[in-house]
Structure formats: structure tokens, C-alpha cells
Design goal:
single chain; 75 residues; mainly alpha
Length: 75
Amino acid sequence: MEKFIKANEVAEIVGVSVTTIRRLTMNKAIPCYKFDRAVRYKPDEIETWMKVRKQEVKVVRKDCDDSLCEHRGEA
């Protein structure tokens, strides 16, 4: 059985605040499991979520119009 982790552990893995993780949870933007009032996360699902998000950012930057892009010159 896979171990579930808490929001503070997710925040450390992702590199954001616990408040950000809670906001993402409330907006259903991050994979989670609710047990009554407790919210838990699976580490492998968080890693997959991060990889997908990273790919989405790369696609947005790749497709942006160079004349309007704020990220011009960034790798």
C-alpha cells in the first residue's frame, strides 16, 4: 500500500508554500484524496502532476509570439 503525505510535505516537494498547496487543492488543480476533513496526496501522483505542469509551461513558451513574449531571451 502506497503512503499518503500531507500538504506540508507536498509543499516541500513542489517548492511552494503550504497555502499555495491548499489553494490548488480547493481549486481541484492538484491530485488529492479526502478522508472526511483530512486531505492527503500520493507522492507519485504529485511527481506526475509536476512533470505535466512543466511540459505545459514549455509548450506555452514555445508557442508564444516573440514580439509579444515576456520570456524572450530565456531558455
